């Protein structure tokens, strides 16, 4: 039995230009490469659901979290110089949350099991580095800096043995929060 509500449909509308101008593309699921629908994307409107957007195709590169709302100038807001190139819909989840974070790659070093938001790994766990994790339950966002700031990474259930091999070699994740159903 799953706690994911499959009836929750997300909808995001991407626009080529700022302030919801130019051609647009409506998306209600994952999209690995938006280039076939539009050449650039500089604003968007989330009508329902939550989405991660990426600055490279195939869900690669920098990530940014969007929930219901209007984003008239995405690129300035996110500090990106390029464009949104792919997006992933985050399914609504109702249930318990559980993640194990590890100090080293391949689940090495000190381990801490988390069930709620943590605004600073250093303050709570005296942990200066987090290089791998195992998400058992729920959907999470990990952040580069304490207090949910900086680059972010979407974590869904699964094993993440090496953030470095995922393209986050120089990034140290220092805080995390659950993606709650109230965000939808």
UniProtKB/TrEMBL annotation:
Q: What InterPro entries does this protein map onto?
A: Beta/Gamma-Crystallin, Beta/gamma_crystallin, G_crystallin-like
Which branch of life, at top level? Eukaryota
PROSITE patterns recorded: CRYSTALLIN_BETA_GAMMA
GO biological process terms on file: lens development in camera-type eye; visual perception
Q: Report domain Beta/gamma crystallin 'Greek key' positions.
A: 10-48, 49-91, 138-180
Q: Would the keyword rRNA processing be found if you checked this record's keyword annotation?
A: no
Q: In the record, what terms sit under GO molecular function?
A: structural constituent of eye lens
Write out the entry's keywords from A to Z: Eye lens protein, Repeat
Query: What job does this protein perform?
Result: Crystallins are the dominant structural components of the vertebrate eye lens.
The family assignment reads:
Belongs to the beta/gamma-crystallin family.
What protein name does the entry list? Beta/gamma crystallin 'Greek key' domain-containing protein
Q: Which organism is it from?
A: Poecilia mexicana
């Amino acid at each position: 039995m799953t706690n994911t509500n499959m009836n929750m449909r997300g909808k995001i509308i991407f626009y080529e230009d700022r302030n919801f101008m130019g051609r647009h593309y409506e998306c209600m699921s994952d999209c690995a490469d938006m280039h076939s629908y539009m050449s650039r994307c500089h604003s968007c409107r989330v009508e329902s659901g939550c989405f991660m957007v990426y600055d490279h195709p195939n869900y690669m590169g920098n990530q940014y979290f969007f929930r219901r709302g209007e984003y008239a100038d995405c690129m300035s807001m996110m500090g990106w110089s390029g464009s949104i190139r792919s997006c992933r819909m985050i399914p609504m989840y109702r249930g318990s949350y559980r993640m194990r974070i590890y100090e080293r790659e391949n689940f090495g070093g000190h381990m801490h099991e988390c069930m709620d938001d943590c605004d600073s790994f250093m303050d709570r766990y005296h942990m200066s580095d987090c290089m791998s994790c195992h998400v058992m339950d729920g959907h999470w966002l990990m952040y580069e800096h304490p207090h949910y700031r900086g680059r972010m990474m979407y974590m869904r259930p699964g094993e993440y043995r090496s953030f470095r091999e995922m393209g986050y070699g120089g990034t140290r994740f220092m805080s995390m929060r659950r993606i709650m159903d109230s965000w939808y």
